[in-house]
Amino acid sequence: MLVQWIERGSPKAQIRVRFPGESPKEIKLKSGFLALKGTIISIPGRVTTVMKETLEFLAELAVNNNKEWFDANRARYQACRDRFVAFSTEYIARLTKFDPTLEGLQPKDCIWRINRDIRFSADKRPYKEWFGCFPATGVPGQPKTWGKKSMRGGYYVHIQPGQCMFAGGIWDPSKELLKALRTEIEANYEEVEAIMGSKSWKKYFAQDFDSYWGTGLKKVPAGFDPEFVHAEWLKHKMYTFSVPLSDEEVISPDFIDKITDIAKAAKPMNDFLNYTFEEYGEFPSRC
């Protein structure tokens, strides 16, 4: 919720808050809470309502993916998007506390627009049937290469009925970046083993990278040791790792806490993969 004003002089400060798409409400903060004008605060129970309404809207959009229906429900969409922006604002703020490289990142950098680019696609559905937020750093000093346009590993949250998930790592790398990632993994596999062997990693992730994005190569690529102890790692075409999330988990009051905990577990592997950019320099970004 967006804090609009604060009334001082009482043990429990009274504030006025406005949740996107709703009228202002006045509440009293419990002892120990801190609020600043213009900031986003989390009100217990609100995530349940917000995500439930968002999933319901997206489920209806999936069976009515046309301009006429969307125009008739544009106000609902805007309310859902505003709420997802508010969620993303809090999510990024939490990430920045343990990953300061995200400092300055804004929700608009991380969230995709609802319209699909159908110019060269056989699939003519005009709208995406999901919301996604991808906080990630990019080329230092070039903000337009951050967030959804970044080639680096980040902390993706995908909201779609029956297909919600968290994903980290590097998706769809260029040929040059993919070779560099494989080289780093082969040379420093003990680091990857240590990360995958940690308690926080095993709480959420598998002992391998995702095969979700394809089956990978049948053989170890040329130039790499076919007898490498983790040969299967070198066959991947992408280096991502993900956690499926049920709709019930997404609408639960502690969803923001859980997704933050998953992101913390993802950070060491993101750091390892992102070190490739320091070692080899920059690679093309999605600009």
Compact description:
It contains ten helices and seven strands.
The CATH architecture of the largest domain: 2-Layer Sandwich
Write down the oligomeric state.
Answer: single chain
N/C terminus separation: 32 Å
Radius of gyration: 21 Å
Strand count, sense and barrel status of the largest sheet are: 4 strands, antiparallel
Using DSSP, what is the number of strands?
Answer: 7
Whole-number mean pLDDT: 85
Percent range of helical residues: 40-55%
Q: Structural class of the helix and strand makeup? A: alpha+beta
The topology string of helices and strands comes to: EEEHHHHEEEHHHHEHH
CATH topology call of the largest domain: BirA Bifunctional Protein, domain 2
Domain module count: 2
Q: Which blocks of ≥5 consecutive residues have pLDDT under 50?
A: 1-13, 30-48
Overall 3D shape: globular
Proportion in β-strands:
5-15%
Q: Would you state the CATH class of the largest domain?
A: Alpha Beta
What order do the strands of the largest sheet run in, or round the barrel if closed? Answer: 4-5-6-7
How many distinct helices?
10
Task: Write up what this structure looks like.
- With 287 residues, this protein is α+β, with helices and mostly antiparallel strands.
- It folds into two domains: 1-41; 43-280, BirA Bifunctional Protein, domain 2.
- It contains ten helices and seven strands.
- The strands form two sheets. It has a four-stranded antiparallel β-sheet, with helices on one face.
- α1 crosses α3 (74-98), α3 packs across α10 and α5 crosses α6.
- 29% of the residues are buried.
- The model is unreliable at 1-13 and 30-48 (pLDDT under 50).
